[in-house]
Amino acid sequence: MTEPDHPLKAHFSGVFHRASQTYDAVGVDFFAPLASALVSRADLAPGDAVLDLGCGRGAALFAAADAVGPNGHAFGVDLAPGMVERTAHDAAARGLGHVRVELGDADHPPVRDGGWDSVVASFVLFFLPDPVATATRVREVLRPGGRFVLSTFDVADERWRGVEARVRPFWPPTDEPSHPATKSHFSSTVGVEELLGDAGYHDVDTVLVEHVNIYRDVQQWLDWTWSAGARVIWERVPEADLVTAQAAACDVVAGLAEPDGTLRERFTVRLHRAVAP
Question: What is the pTM of this model?
Answer without folding.
Answer: 0.94
